[in-house]
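Consortium newsletter contribution from the modelling node. Members have asked for a concrete example of what our holo predictions look like. Here is one, prepared for the pyridoxal-5'-phosphate complex that several groups have been discussing at recent meetings.
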Amino acid sequence: MSEAHAPGARGPEGTIPLAVPNIGDLERRYVLEAVESGFVSSVGPFVAEFERRFAERVGAKHAVACSTGTAAIHIGLILLGVRRGDDVVCSDFTFVGSVAPIAYLGARPVLVDSEERTWNLDPALLAEELERRARVGEAMPKVVEVVHALGQPADLAPIVEVCERFGVAILEDAAESLGSGWSTGPLAGRQTGTVGAVGCFSFNGNKIATTGGGGMIVTDDDELAARARHLTTQAKVADVGYLHDEVGYNYRLTNLAAGLGLAQLERLDEFVGAKHRIAARYDVAFADLPLVLPPRLAGLDATYWLYSVLVPETDGRGRDELLGHLSERGVGARALWRPLHLQPPYAGAPVVGGTVGQALFERGVSLPCATELTEADQDRVVRAVRSFFS
Ligand SMILES: *Cc1c(COP(=O)(O)O)cnc(C)c1O
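And here is the predicted structure:
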């Protein structure tokens, strides 16, 4: 998303970048160690260490590293038994990487809208849809894929309740929400990605922690973890010459990438702290403006991975006018995700609701929030935003 700018660098003409990786000495040290060890590919000590420490960090029993977040979701759906012709519920308001793996499997996405409170999957709409299916005798979706968009946890407890009631598995797309979780209610103390049967993370260059490109599958189920490991390594049977007992995938993370990831993981608290500080400063600076600020909900602890605001439509001046205004002032802002039901490959998918996600897209603007954003640069962003309304 934000990879138009070189890591750590300023954009053209001193543009303040939206979000760029934070790569320091620790990252350099681990990557160099991987290079010098000769283990640069998918065998090597950093992969296992990254998996072990990641599982520990998020509070899952197992973590299996993958080449991308999209690959993690693809394998996650296979683990949960998704096959051709199945329905899979997916949040409508999300990045396209959430849904493509459903299509890879020949399954049909059923797109459920967001709620205004969290900007994430609406538990009431999901309950209506599953209750409707039960009433008319329509097959249940195989999986409900819940996205925690922009670092904001979904209101997952009622989703868990309704999915348990109808026997539907949950896959959490936590690609954008590493470091976020719940602090009150039935899920108190849990982190996003560890509640559903399977959770998937991404370490793409724009995420809060990066491996250049990479992903992670987490689960508490021993068998699912073993199967994930098998499927991501070409379904190769150990110790038997080139025997592959099912169709597998070449989805393993490289040791080089895992070295980078381990360093980023060790700095995750620093990154989350920076995102919180940036979000808190924006919240104060914009408190009197006619903007909708990102959700702040007791017990749903967001990272504010991508600090985003909603622009009111006044005098025909909305999102595009604000984006243009900021661009002219060297501020690298960006629109939010176009909901999946407006994406050509998924235009025919059933939609439940559809107006909240669309409004987020039509009104949403993400503002610079790189973990290395200086207060002086943030003040420049604030002045640019305020001058739009004056
Ligand atoms: C980034 C992202 C993905 C895909 O991850 P990649 O590592 O880029 O393949 C999936 N879902 C969401 C919500 C994402 O933001």
